[in-house]
Amino acid sequence: MPPRIQPKTFILLLKTHKLTVLLTLPSTSTVADVKVEALTALQSSVLDNPEPNPQLMDDDDMEWKVPKVSSLEDFELARTARSSGRPAGQYEKLELNAQLKTVVANWDPIFVQFKDPNGEWAVSTRGLLYIPSRSIHFRTRLCAPLPPCVVRKTGGLLPVKVSIPPINPEEHEDPATQKGKRKADE
After folding, report:
1. What angle do CA 113, 14, 167 make, to 5 degrees?
2. How far is CA 25 from its chain centroid?
3. Band of residue 32 on the pLDDT scale cut at 50, 70, 90
4. Which pairing describes strands 86-93 and 121-124: parallel, antiparallel, or unpaired?
5. Do 97 and 59 touch, CB atoms closer than 8 A?
6. Is the pLDDT of residue 142 over 50?
7. Burial of 3 per CB tally in 10 Å (0-12, 13-18, 19+)
């Protein structure tokens, strides 16, 4: 059987916490394009709306709240790392300049990996200089003009946090209660 031809338009599942966003992009788009769309979705006012069914809310609702993002620097996109064709439980960061059709397939999930808000600051002019956030001091009087620089947060990446529900919740059984292929004695 010949290999399946990839479509010209990809539908991707952007996942984080208990949120799934469907993104539709051309297969020739780059991961950077996906990241721009993800930023738009993560800044949407939908995330600020109250829970429509408060009686169904979990006790750990604050733990599952999606962090606020203000720029593309606040998060990275990742995919599930595979070992022997199966998900390995690890995530690998997607390179921004890679084309979608080379790194993911249609309907693949892409996970949001947020940066640690308590990380370090970096000042960049020509190269990167890392400065711990506790030692940043500002002077009011400068002796010579400084070259233009950019100050940004470089915090490490937090682990991917995502809740993936079972495909059919009614059929979901606890594996510890299954007895194997034979019928259980009653």
Report:
1. 110
2. 17
3. very high
4. unpaired
5. no
6. no
7. exposed
CA distance 115 to 152: 12
Q: Predicted confidence band at 143 (pLDDT cuts at 50, 70, 90)?
A: very low
Half-sphere CA count of 20, side-chain side, radius 13 A: 11
Answer yes or no: is pLDDT of 178 > 50: yes
Sign of CA dihedral 57, 59, 63, 67: positive
CB 11 within 8 A of CB 80: no
CA 132/CA 50 separation, integer angstroms:
37
| Other CB atoms within 10 Å distance of the CB of residue 84 | 5
In percent, how much of the chain has pLDDT > 70? 64
Mean pLDDT of the chain: 76
Structure token digits, residue 141: 């009087």
pLDDT, tens digit (0-9, with 9 covering 90-100), for 61-86: 677 788 899 999 999 999 998 888 77
Q: Is 13 helix (H, G, I), strand (E, B) or coil?
A: strand
pTM score: 0.67
Give 155's contacts (C-beta < 8 A, 6+ positions apart).
Answer: 115, 116, 117, 118, 119, 120
